Amino acid sequence: MSFAKMIVFTLAFFAFADLISRFVPKEMVAFRTREAAVLLRTSIGNYQPSLRLEKFNCFGDLANLGNFPQLRVFRHELFSSDACGNRNIPENLERTGTQILLWGDSFFAGDGNSDESLIGVQLEKLLHTFVYNAAAVQPEFMRAMTRRLRMDNGLLVIGILERLEYPASFVSEGLGPNDVCQELPPAFRKRRFKENLRSLIHTSPVKIWGQNLMKSLQDDDILPNVYAPNVFSRTLKNSDVFLFYPTEAPRYDKPVAALEYIRSMNLEAAKEGLRILVVLIPNKYTVYSPLFQNLPAEKDQGGHYLDELESRLISDGTPVLNLTSIERKAAAQAYREDRYLYWPDDTHWNPEGIRVAAEAISKKIASEGLLSIQKEH
Hints:
With 377 residues, the chain is an alpha/beta fold. 40% of the residues lie in helices and 13% in strands. The protein has a single domain (60-183, 224-368), classed as 3-Layer(aba) Sandwich (Rossmann fold), CATH 3.40.50. The longest helix is centred in the N-terminal third of the chain and has 19 residues, at 3-21. The chain is globular and about 80 Å long.
């Protein structure tokens, strides 16, 4: 066989292998269920609708991003989504009497955790009322989601993460007579089509397997680890290593956009008869900085941004719960018992961290009388 024919044959072989590999279940090549769930989204939710995944060797986003296999913490994940593409069991979308709507980001959505540990599940047990998790849905669909759930005089619980940026304003969409989960607004439908097309083109199991093979060689022994700068690490007093996103470093700016976002959400929620509770979620760095071997100065331990936002919300008369001191205290207690609230290899809470947050939120709701009706189920 000539060299030219060998080249053609090799290219054809890999093209065929790439085509066939795209029929492989995506959870088989993803490092956790979330990465498989965000492919081919066709509704307003952040995940593929009506999905059920199970994976036994999941590990954290930071260990993957920085290529630190020695720091992986393996766990089992069961992942379910409803017809809207939100992180709920399917029945939650159709039941009547939902009193709490969760709105936020990946922390409330439960990235890195299994269905039974989700904050919505914990709140239902603590408050004896129906909770729907719409975390990671775009804010313009909040009112439409409220109508889809047929909520009446309920509570919108908004999670605000310390390291994220928020839109100062938005325009509500999907308020027509159609089911917003099935009939997307034209502009959003076009956006989803483009996202899915890019996903189909760029998500190749063969490519992922090849990248993983190269990453196994880029271990700073055989080849340099070029992924290491994507994260940073800190060592705790007990010598355990935690990984962090670069954006988890302390913030010193003013929470102007976040405050305007919350005010906009409050106004839109009031149009649907909902009250709100804002939950301020600290970065993992902010929670664990007091436990670092090399203790940062107090001004560099994080939390100032959320403290400022909390003060502004109190001045506005908006119910707010700042989890910073609560989580720092719980983290210190758990540390003494060789437990953690966040995954060492991930930016998110683990089940213990979710439990602490859920208990604090339920106490705040009860003490402020934010639920007009508590529906037994």
